[in-house]
Structures are given as C-alpha cells and as structure tokens.
Design goal:
This protein has about 180 residues and is an alpha/beta fold. Helix content is about 35%, strand content about 20%. Helix 2 links the parallel strand 1 and strand 2.
Length: about 180
C-alpha cells in the first residue's frame, strides 16, 4: 500500500480572497507584548489554519509588513485580519464592550485547565497570550474574565508562545464543534 503525500494543489485550500469571505470562528487572538517576529508570524499561520476571526497585536508586538513575520507566516499575514493597540488593556476593554469573553492563557491561582474549559454556543471569545519571558501582564489578567492553563508535565513551566497558541486554538476549535 502506498501513502503518497498530497500536492498543495490537491488540498482544496481557499485562496486569500475566498478565505477573507469565509465564516470564521468567533475567536480573537490577542498578543500581549510578544517580542519575536517569528513567533508572531507563526501565530498568523495558526490563526489562518484554525480560521480565527483576527489577531490583535499589542505593545512591543511587531506588525506587518515585516520580513521576519512573513518568513514564518508564509503569507498568512495577508489572509488573517489584524489590529494594533499600544496598550493591551485597551484592546481587552474594547473586546469586552463588543461582547467577547476574554481569557488570559496563563498560570494563575484560579486558572481553569484547558481540558476542563467549556465553551458556550453563541459566545465570542478573545484569548490573550503573553510575552515569551514574562507571560501576560498582571493588569491584563486582572481585566480578563478568567485564566486558562495548558496542563504540562515536564520540568519547564511554559511552552513557546506560538506552540501554546496552536494547542489552544485547536482545542477551542474542537470545543466549539468546528471539527
């Protein structure tokens, strides 16, 4: 039995214009001072793959156009909508006014394990992911509706932010009944 790899042309992916018209998952990714442009590019790719509504880049997070973002986004910075806010707190407050439930992806005293988190039909979510060293700012955690934590079992206390986002977006897609 053969197991031939599929060609890109066989995958049936939409082009950028088709993608922009496609219904998205009511899920916004918020980057709180993510410093690596390669991580940001990876977030664009994951957000494209899992049809997130948009990305909000905050603080020191770089924005397109950027050669470094493009190198890891591979063009997803053109398909996924994005906004920039100088202060993450302002982005969170705006999202809450727009009816999003905002959760920081962070280890806190009362965080909910990702495996235990339940989504609700018709609810819109915004997920805040933090700086590679310092995580989500405490002021942003305080403004959030709660915190969600990825269970981990090794010696390290965190995952790379782009890996974390891939894990969380996939899990949210499943919980929201999109896969």
């Amino acid at each position: 039995m053969t197991n031939r790899k599929l060609l890109n042309s066989e995958l049936g992916r939409p082009d950028i214009e088709e993608f922009k018209k496609k219904e998205k998952v009511p899920l916004v990714v918020v980057l709180d001072n993510v410093r690596s442009q390669f991580n940001i590019g990876s977030v664009f790719r994951s957000s494209d793959a899992f049809i997130a509504e948009k990305i909000i880049l905050c603080g020191i997070s770089a924005t397109p156009p950027s050669a470094e973002i493009h190198k890891s986004a591979l063009g997803a910075e053109f398909s996924v909508g994005w906004e920039y806010f100088e202060k993450t707190e302002d982005a969170v407050l705006k999202l809450k006014q727009e009816g999003y439930r905002v959760f920081s992806i962070e280890q806190t005293e009362n965080s909910i394990m990702l495996s235990d988190f339940k989504t609700s039909d018709g609810e819109k979510y915004a997920l805040v992911f933090g700086n590679e060293v310092h995580g989500v700012q405490q002021e942003v955690v305080d403004l959030s509706d709660g915190s969600i934590e990825i269970p981990q079992f090794g010696t390290k206390h965190s995952l790379n932010v782009s890996v974390c986002i891939g894990v969380v977006l996939w899990e949210f897609l499943k919980k929201m009944g999109k896969v």
